[in-house]
Structures are given as structure tokens and as C-alpha cells.
């Protein structure tokens, strides 16, 4: 079966020193484009949905078109909920058919983050749904979660040890200096911290804020053990700019299917570039 949870995909990536792209899709077209790119490269893929996107469609409606794409894919596909700060909503998506969820309690005190993450893990495990957790603050805007640059905080190794041990999550996103959205100014990634956490973490590490990192940064972080890399902004840009380009070039055409086909190719191109790079064995 091609519709899987994240664990199998990521454990294999970690063992073999490559990373799997997790792409934030916004509708059928972007999901289909992403999976076709993965199929052509014969690589696994994670389709990520933001809470905002899921709410725009509705849980049942969104899963009704995502699940068939995953089930019919020629490669392994996980469908993952990104940055959910709401315990009840996270559980609703687990019930709704997501094979993986991220519960983001990073803005809470450590003990409350642990408590809520544990609750999600206990709910998800019997359903074979995997859970990603976060510690520290990844700056920028993701969905409606705003973390100001001044409030940025790297994950603390001691907190990470406690959090991992207590929660038994399947994938871990420690904040090490990457940011959501488009980077402003210099990017300061703490590679040593990332390496240290990866050494003691029993589960694969996740890199948020992938858009805008250089090839060298990706390469270094994947070599250090990043197994999942999140790409959201680059997909949004490819989608919106693809549409803009097409309508500019074909002012009086008004052909939605041709517009969709063109836009889909632009999204596919961006996904392909990322998967090709992430899947190189380090
Ligand atoms: Zn993120």
C-alpha cells in the first residue's frame, strides 16, 4: 500500500542518510503535482497540510481528495498535518484519516507541551498515526502562528532529552535557527546544536523553514541527520507566480484547464528540484 505513515519513510531516510521532502500543498492540483514529481523520481513524499488549509476545505472534504492520490501513488506517500496548536483539532484530523500529525506546543511551557504532546501520541499510536513535535521557537509566520525574531529561541539540549523521553514522538523539530517564510537578512543556523540533538535523539529530526536555505546549508543539515525537510513558501510562490505568468501570457484565453496544466508544471518543477537534492545519499 502506498498510503503510509511517516515513520517508515523517515526511519529509512535516517538510516540511509538522505532526507524526505514534506511539501505544503494547498489543493488537489498542488497535491497531484507533488506526488507526480515523487513518482517520476521514485522517491517517497510527505504531503503536508497546514491547519488553515484544512479549515478552508473541511476535514472530510480535504481527505476525500487527498487519500485517493496517496492510495493510487506508485511511491510511498504520507499525509501530514503541519503545526497544529489545537489538541482537539489534531485529534479530529487523526480521526479524519491523516496518517501523521504535528502537534506544535512549542509556545507553551515545557511541561504543558509535554502533557499535550503525550495526549496526542496516546491517541495516535493505536491508530498507527505518527506524531511530530517541536521545541524552541522557529521564527517567522506559519499559517497564523507568528513568532517574532526577538522571541526566537533555540531548543535546549536538556529540554530536548526530557521532551523526547516523556513524549515518545516519531519525529522531532528542534529550533536551530531556520525560519518560516522568506528569510530576511542573514541566516544563522546552529549546526553544532543540531548535531548534538541528533546524536541523542531516538527519532528522526525535522527541518522547518526550508525555503530560502542554500544548497550548502541543506547539504550540511542532511549530512548531520535531518531526515524530513519542510517546504512551504516555495510551493506557494510556484503556484501563484505560475498562474500570474500564464494569465499574463494568455490574456484573452480564459481556458481553466490550460491554466491548471501550466501551473501544475511549475509546482512540479519546484518539487522535483527539492526531492532530487534531498534524496542524494550523503
Ligand atoms: Zn514549520
UniProtKB/TrEMBL annotation:
Entry keyword Chloroplast: no
EC number: 4.1.2.13
Alphabetic keyword roster: Lyase, Metal-binding, Zinc
Binding locations of Zn(2+) 1: 83, 180, 208
Enzyme class, UniProt record, top EC level: lyase
Residues binding dihydroxyacetone phosphate, per UniProt: 181, 209-211, 230-233
Annotated binding of Zn(2+) 2, by residue: 104, 134
Cofactor note: Binds 2 Zn(2+) ions per subunit. One is catalytic and the other provides a structural contribution.
Gene Ontology MF: a single term: fructose-bisphosphate aldolase activity
GO terms under biological process: carbohydrate metabolic process
Source taxon at top rank: Bacteria
Pfam families associated with the record: F_bP_aldolase
Protein name per its UniProtKB record: Fructose-1,6-bisphosphate aldolase Fba2
